[in-house]
Amino acid sequence: xxxxxxxxxxxxxxxxxxxxxxxxxxxxxxxxxxxxxxxxxxxxxxxxxxxxxxxxxxxxxxxxxxxxxxxxxxxxxxxxxxxxxxxxxxxxxxxxx
Length: 97
Description:
Layout: E1 11-19, E2 24-25, E3 35-40, E4 45-50, E5 60-62, E6 67-71, E7 78-83, E8 89-96
Antiparallel strand pairs: 1-8, 2-7, 3-6, 3-8, 4-5, 4-7
């Protein structure tokens, strides 16, 4: 499925998270952020959103090298990630405003 031509907002702050053996959370998203763009660069992972999120291997799945867009509550939400495989990975979170 291609997202070509779909506009979700202008890229803003980018956060790089490590999806390790325990949950790792981002900073709170900016007040004007309404959508985030996610990509798991090195390994697939799991993620969850909320004010104090803790990701588990039962959380939503993010495949490696697939870009997904997720609606968030700016000013209060964070994202937490945890690895899927036995190796740590890199997850890029781009706030869209």
